[in-house]
Every structure is written in structure tokens, then in C-alpha cells.
Amino acid sequence: MEFFDLIKERYSVREYKDKEIPAELLEKVLDAGRIAPTARNCQPVRILVARSKEAVAKMNELTPCVYGAPVVLIICADTNESSSQPCGRSFAEADATIAATHIMLAAADAGLGTVWVGRFDQKEVKEALSFPDELVPFALMPIGYPSDTSVPNPRHNENKELSEIVKYF
Ligand SMILES: Cc1cc2nc3c(=O)[nH]c(=O)nc-3n(C[C@H](O)[C@H](O)[C@H](O)COP(=O)(O)O)c2cc1C
After folding, report:
1. Beta 113-114 vs 45-50: how paired, if at all?
2. Residues within 6 Å of ligand 1 by CB
3. Predicted TM-score (pTM) of this structure
């Protein structure tokens, strides 16, 4: 699909088919996260893939946003590896966010749906998955084939005008 069509077509999928994602396809989508840019090319992003029934059930206990996807990604950054130079502020979340965005778009290109889930408690996820202190989860991302009845939220196309968000000077 042409790139601009793809970014317009992508929407948050909140209903999934009970259908496995082929391992090679999932890997291809994850690879889009691997090659995302990171501050000072530190590459601190880590992605955990909950794909067994037990692992997905465990993730489903950590958020009210449960949509029936066969796989849930936990997109994290290792704060020991992320850069805070030269500005003195951490770029861990920015790095994880860009990787997550690459993944969402690569998934849409592959016919898969995703939704960014921010509604979770970072401490609870860290405890449930026995993360070391330095590993911080920034997004949960259910991923799978959209159900036949899945449609975008009615507000999906309600975007501000360019003139409201851009100022030339
Ligand atoms: C940082 C962030 C956090 C979000 N958290 C949630 C969430 O917890 N649950 C949910 O269902 N959707 C969540 N979303 C999805 C947004 O609601 C959705 O992207 C927005 O309404 C625009 O819809 P669209 O993705 O279909 O264009 C989140 C999106 C972003 C970018």
C-alpha cells in the first residue's frame, strides 16, 4: 500500500480473530521496531512477546483494555542503555515510542491490527514480569488479525486541521 494510504488506513483495532500470527510475519513486524531510530543510536528498546495462552492471560490481568488479541507486545526500554545526553533528560520513552510506531505501521502493512494500550500501571507490570529496575514498560500492544466486524472508532477521522497544529515562522 502507498505510504500515505497506509497511515490513513491504520486504526486502533479493538476486536480480533482467534487466529495465530505466523511466526515469520510477527518477526518481520518486530524487525520494524528493531530498525527504528534511537537517541545517540543507543538502541535501548526491548520487546517482550506474550504469545502463550498463559502469558496473554497474565497480561490481560494488568489492564482493563482487553480486546481478545492472540499476542500482546510489551514495549520497553532499558534505562541503563538509553541516552540522556547531551540534553540531560531521558530519551527512553521516546525511543520506545518510535519503535512502537514502526511496529504499528508495519503491522498494518502486513494486514494485522494493533492498538496502543497505555492504561496499565508500570510498577504492576514490572512486578508481574519480574523486570529488573532498569527495564521500563511504556506500552502494551495487542496484535493480531482484526475480526470481520472490526471497524475504526467513529472519532478515528476527527483530526485537527493542519493550521491548528502547525505554525510557520
Ligand atoms: C499513548 C497512547 C495511549 C493509548 N492508550 C490506550 C488505551 O489504554 N486503551 C485503548 O483502548 N486505546 C488507547 N490508545 C489508542 C487511542 O485511543 C487511539 O489511537 C486514538 O483514539 C485515535 O484512534 P485511532 O488509533 O483509531 O486513529 C492510546 C493511544 C496512544 C497514542
Report:
1. unpaired
2. 11-12, 65, 115-119, 152-153, 156
3. 0.97
